[in-house]
Amino acid sequence: MGYSGRRADGLHELCAERLRHAEQLVAGTDAVLLSGWGRRRNVAEAELMRAAWMGGDVRLIADETARSTAGNAMSIADTARRLDATDVTVVTSRWHAFRAGMLVRAALPGVAVRTSSPPGRPPVGLLTRELICAAALPYHLIRLRARAQF
User: Angle, to 10 degrees, between the axis of helix 137-148 and the axis of helix 94-107?
Assistant: First the structure.
């Protein structure tokens, strides 16, 4: 999953950490989905990640449409279904992994979903934001589960 600062250009440090971590996990992987849109810039996070990828020869799929964690979960589920995936690893920061994993599992029932995170402590502001977003988690879970039924 991508990450961008509100006014930053280029690949954000948190996003680069996630990308480096994903590069270490790709052995035996069929495909990697790079997910994230472009906030106030011409180049989406997904394309910035593709350009910075150093994880070897693996099929890279860029999704530039996901604007939120719930959007990422929908995109991951759609891509996993198209690829007939039986196993998905969501790479995101540790402070974001619980909510991201829950959303992907709701969007992708019957598929093994795990999370993996680079080391590091969350900035206090992002941890606070994540706790606030957790309040909306039940709503997003219901929405994703309903969408997954179709």
Answer: 30
